[in-house]
Amino acid sequence: MNRTARTTADSSLSHSGAVGSGRDARRPQGTARRGGPSRSANAGRPGQGRAAGAPKEFALPVTRTAPLPAVETFAGLDMPERLKTVLRAQGMSAPFPIQAATLPNALAGRDVLGRGRTGSGKTLAFGLALLARTAGQRAEPRSPLALVLVPTRELAQQVTAALTPYARGLRLRLTTVVGGMSISRQARDLQGGSEVVVATPGRLKDLVERGDCRLGQVAITVLDEADQMADMGFMPQVTHLLDQVRPQGQRLLFSATLDRNVDLLVRRYLTDPVVHSVDPSAGAVTSMEHHLLHVQGADKHATTTQIAARDGRVIMFLDTKHAVDRLTRDLLAVGVRASALHGGKSQSQRTRTLAGFKSGHTNVLVATNVAARGIHVDNLDLVVNVDPPSDSKDYLHRGGRTARAGESGTVVTLVLPGQRRGMNRLMSDAAITAQETRVYPGEADLSRITGAQAPSGIALTAADTEPPKRTGTTQQARRGRPARQRRRSSFNTAA
């Protein structure tokens, strides 16, 4: 998310230049590997079976119409005063580079193609413009006026949480539409009228096909993390939805990388876009330290456990759901407060897990790549790749959970002997220089880099990692609310 301080690590590079005026996924494949706590095979591991090549970027389009200059403060933007009041209340006065560069043009109604690393402030870069340009309008039932498409449920909820105070300030209704939740409830929210919808492509397509949502009035469309939507195979759903919004509407496409999967969206749907790239493509962040810790296979589980037992929170990434569940059980058994997050969990389980991690009831979030985007946790200073990522793009987004919004952080990757060449190639592709250290459980270097220590050995259960349930008074208060208000309270925000 965003904070007042501006980071000097970001170098603003505005690219100008032309794209056709038309409005027009495969997951990487690889070979299996062995090793690590999971002892399970997974496709596409670095150094075994295929090269972990850097994402191939397309040539950035040339803007025919000169862009407006960047601003230095939010006060200098042409936005409703109520938005500026909320910004001041949030303690924000100076925009981050991607906000400073894109907001003047987005507020003026230009199409925007923005590239910025995860955690660089993209949400408010598109969110403030979308809300400002929608202010004062009222949506008809089932006909939103603005749309934000995101690849995952977690990112949808994060975007909703970030935009909610600003939407309330403008008396705009905001609805989140994602899978894993009641589609009937979401249909009721849309029937009640929402100016802004934040959605994952699959669930929104289902609602459109049911007749519960009509996109013909959508004048502003945002694609957030467009590259991941392409990687996850959502391109058919995305193009199906974009073909239904207002043809002359505004499009804002934001992504951490602009590889060739995104080129289709740019060529088909963006008209004379203002292009802003506010970071190198590799997304290296100077406030982030990178470490490759070389371990022997026999030591990897003990090394992982001692890192997890550190004081402070950590996200640990593994290849598979099975490996995540097994490591979580092992950590709980030795007294480490750990919770599992992966695509096999229900939405309510994932929501509780994230709430426990953010509140500090859980110290270790053990996850597959489902957590690699769309999760923001304040003051998270360590990410550990227990299993190395498939490529530099995955590395970027895993590591992006730390060192966000100008904070500092450390990314650690545990590397087995057979993975060294692949990891070196991956880091080269990412244009990142990492410190390499051979480590052993219980030794000083491991503790110095990660804060590793021996676990307590006192077994815990999953219940020990959950936030306390609401008190009877709170539950009674919730039951006392009118049904309509209660139904819309979690995912539909109105003034």
Topology of helices and strands:
Elements: E1 13-15, H1 81-89, H2 97-107, E2 112-115, H3 122-134, E3 146-149, H4 153-169, E4 174-177, H5 183-192, E5 196-199, H6 201-209, E6 220-224, H7 226-231, H8 235-242, E7 250-255, H9 260-269, E8 274-277, E9 288-294, H10 300-308, E10 314-317, H11 321-333, E11 338-341, H12 347-359, E12 364-367, E13 382-385, H13 392-399, E14 409-415, H14 420-429, E15 435-438, H15 444-450, H16 472-479, H17 483-488, E16 492-493
Parallel strand pairs: 2-7, 2-8, 3-5, 3-6, 4-5, 6-7, 9-14, 9-15, 10-12, 10-13, 11-12, 13-14
Antiparallel strand pairs: 1-8, 4-16
Helix pairs in contact: 2-3, 3-4, 6-8
Give an overview of the whole structure.
Residues 1-15 have a biased composition (Polar residues). This protein has 495 residues and is α/β, with parallel strands linked by helices. The protein folds into two domains: 13-20 and 61-277, Rossmann fold; 288-460, Rossmann fold. It contains 17 helices and 16 strands. It has helices at residues 81-89, 97-107, 122-134, 153-169, 183-192, 201-209, 226-231, 235-242, 260-269, 300-308, 321-333, 347-359, 392-399, 420-429, 444-450, 472-479, 483-488, and strands at 13-15, 112-115, 146-149, 174-177, 196-199, 220-224, 250-255, 274-277, 288-294, 314-317, 338-341, 364-367, 382-385, 409-415, 435-438, 492-493. Helix 13 (392-399) links the parallel strand 13 (382-385) and strand 14 (409-415). Helix 3 (122-134) crosses helix 4 (153-169). The longest helix is centred in the first third of the chain and has 17 residues, at 153-169.
